[in-house]
Design a protein that fits this description.
Helix content is 19%, strand content 41%. The protein is of the alpha/beta class. The chain has one domain. The radius of gyration is 21 Å and the shape is globular. The protein starts with a helix and ends with a helix.
Length: 408
C-alpha cells in the first residue's frame, strides 16, 4: 500500500517520503486511505498549480524536522474558556463539559468530501490520529450562552496534525478561538463546521510561527437557513503559512463574514485563501482582508465568490483586500475573483496596495511623534477594521498587532 501511494507522487521530495512513511504507520482505514490518495495524486502543492503559484509548499517544505524555535505563549486564550490542545505527541481535553456541549474523540478517520479541492486538508484528514490523538474530534453544540471554546496547536516536534468537526444544532451559538503557535516543522489542521438552521458561530484564529516552519490551516463551513458564520484571522506567517477557508451557503438567508489581517516581517510568508459558494438564494457574504508587509516579507490574498445561475439569485456579496507595502522589498500578491452566473445579484470586489500616506505621516511628525511610532500607529489604524468582528478578543488581537509594529 505505501509503495503504491508513494509511486503516485512524481519525483517525491524528502518531505513527501516522510509523509508517506507517517501514513504507513497509522491503522489501516478505507476513508483515511481515500484522503491520503487524494493528496498523493498531486503531492505537496507547488507554484505550477494555479492556486498555489505564490505559495509553493513543495519548495518550502524540503524536509520535516523540529524547528529550533518554539513559541509557547498563547495570547488569545479567553478567560473561562474550555480548552483543547493538540501537540505533535498528544491531545488534552477537559474532564467535564457544560450542558449543551458534547465531545466525541473518534480513533477512526471520517470521510472528507473536500479532498480534491483541499489537498492539505485531505492530508490532515489522513494523518491525524495515532497514539493518544483522535483521528477525528467531534464537538456537538446544542446550547446558547456557553463558555468559549479554545483550541491550541503547539509544541516541539516534527509534525502536528489535527482534524476537528463542529456541528451546531438549530439555534445553537458558540464563540471559538484557535491558536496555532508553531513549534513543529509542519503543522496541518482541518476544521469542519456544519451550522444548522439559525446557528451562530464566531471564530477567531491567531497564527504565529518561525521561519523554520510550514503551516497549513484548512477550514470548511456549510451554512443552513439563517445561519451566521463570523471569522476573524490574524496571522504573522511563518516560512510559509496558508490559512484557507471554504464556505458553502446551502440554504436561504445564510450569512458569512470573513475578515483577516496579515503582518509579515522579513522571511515570513502569509497566505489568506478563501472560496465562497452561494449555493442558495438570498445569502450574504462580507469579506475584508488587510495586510502590512516589511522588506523581505510576502503576503498573499486569494478570494473567490462563486454564484451559480439558479441557486445563487439575490446574492449579496462584497470582497475587499487592501495592503500596505511598508518598505522596499516587500511583496504582496492578490487575486480576487467573482464567478457569477445568476443575474439578480449584488456583488462587488476591490483590491488596493500601496505605501503609507506621506501626508498623514508628515502631519504626525509635525506634532512631535517619532517616525517609527507614527508609522506603527498609522499601520495599526489601517488594519484595525479587519479585527472589529472578533468580539471580546478584538483588543487582544490589536495588542498583538501593535506589539509587532512597534518592533518592526
Amino acid at each position: 500500500m505505501t509503495t503504491a501511494l508513494r509511486d503516485l507522487i512524481a519525483n517525491p521530495t524528502a518531505a513527501e517520503l516522510e509523509l508517506v512513511a507517517r501514513y504507513g504507520m497509522l491503522p489501516e482505514d478505507a476513508r483515511r486511505e481515500r484522503a491520503f490518495l487524494a493528496f498523493a495524486k498531486g503531492g505537496l502543492p507547488h507554484r505550477r498549480v494555479e492556486g498555489w503559484r505564490w505559495s509553493d509548499i513543495k519548495a518550502a517544505l524540503g524536509a520535516i524536522e523540529t524547528p529550533p524555535q518554539v513559541n509557547a505563549v498563547d495570547p488569545i486564550s479567553p478567560s473561562g474558556a474550555i480548552h483543547f490542545a493538540f501537540t505533535p505527541t498528544g491531545f488534552t481535553w477537559p474532564e467535564t463539559l457544560p450542558e449543551g456541549l458534547r465531545m466525541l474523540a473518534k480513533p477512526e478517520a471520517l470521510a472528507f468530501g473536500g479532498s480534491e479541492d483541499m489537498p492539505l486538508g485531505a492530508l490532515a484528514a489522513a494523518l491525524s490520529g495515532g497514539g493518544r490523538k483522535p483521528a477525528t474530534l467531534l464537538i456537538e453544540v446544542s446550547g446558547k450562552d456557553l463558555p468559549p471554546v479554545h483550541i491550541c496547536y503547539s509544541g516541539a516536534g516534527e509534525a502536528n496534525f489535527a482534524r476537528i468537526q463542529f456541528v451546531l444544532r438549530p439555534g445553537a451559538e458558540l464563540a471559538l478561538s484557535e491558536s496555532c503557535l508553531g513549534g513543529a516543522g509542519f503543522t496541518g489542521t482541518l476544521v469542519e463546521f456544519l451550522l444548522q438552521e439559525g446557528a451562530k458561530l464566531r471564530r477567531t484564529v491567531y497564527q504565529r510561527g518561525s521561519t523554520s516552519e510550514v503551516v497549513a490551516m484548512t477550514a470548511s463551513a456549510e451554512l443552513e437557513a439563517g445561519a451566521e458564520f463570523t471569522q476573524t484571522t490574524l496571522t504573522f506567517g511563518a516560512k510559509l503559512a496558508r490559512l484557507e477557508t471554504h464556505v458553502t451557503h446551502q440554504k436561504t438567508g445564510a450569512k458569512a463574514t470573513l475578515n483577516a489581517a496579515y503582518l509579515c516581517a522579513a522571511g515570513f510568508h502569509a497566505d489568506i485563501t478563501t472560496h465562497v459558494r452561494h449555493g442558495a438564494p438570498a445569502c450574504v457574504t462580507r469579506q475584508l482582508t488587510k495586510g502590512a508587509v516589511l522588506d523581505g516579507g510576502r503576503g498573499v490574498f486569494q478570494g473567490k465568490f462563486f454564484v451559480p445561475r439558479t441557486a445563487g439569485q439575490k446574492t449579496d456579496a462584497d470582497m475587499q483586500h487592501n495592503a500596505l507595502l511598508l518598505e522596499d522589498g516587500a511583496e504582496v500578491f492578490a487575486k480576487p475573483e467573482l464567478e457569477i452566473y445568476a443575474d439578480d445579484v449584488e456583488c462587488a470586489h476591490g483590491n488596493t496596495s500601496g505605501a503609507l500616506d506621506a501626508n498623514q505621516l508628515f502631519y504626525m511628525r509635525q506634532r512631535g511623534i517619532g517616525e517609527a511610532e507614527a508609522r506603527a500607529l498609522l499601520t495599526e489604524a489601517f488594519i484595525a477594521e479587519a479585527l472589529e468582528e472578533a468580539g471580546e478578543l478584538e483588543a487582544v488581537l490589536r495588542d498583538e498587532a501593535r506589539a509587532f509594529l512597534q518592533k518592526a
